[in-house]
Amino acid sequence: MPDIEHLNSPAFSALGLPFSEIVRVGDTLYLSGQMGTLPGGLKLAPGGLKAEAEQALRNLQASLEAHGFELGQVVKCTVMLADMNDWPQFNEVYTRFFQPPYPARSAFGSSGLALGSRLEIEAIAVARS
After folding, report:
1. Predicted TM-score (pTM) of this structure
2. What is the pLDDT of residue 28?
3. Of 45, 52, 68, 89, which has the most beta carbons under 10 Å away?
4. Residue 18, preceding bond cis, omega within 30 degrees?
């Protein structure tokens, strides 16, 4: 059985949430979902879907970088949208953070996201040696 490591940055730990920021199993990193919350708290970035999407992706990037990883190591993203009509707007923001060849991705509509968020994004990455 591979080693399992729970990675929590000080900034994430300070939030007191009941889950790990990243769980590493061997060379695979499982990142918890990120919403468009402003750093240091649980308040959503103002400005709607695009502002939340940009902040969520910055949060994803910050989680990776806090542990010595980068967005280029992401191989799969799962996106939950409160309204699937926001999908084109999300893609506009997403393509500023990821370039071809893009990670594999799925997106689905979801109601009742935490904090009244417009979206949540989780990722799987590979830890390069």
Report:
1. 0.94
2. 97
3. 52
4. no
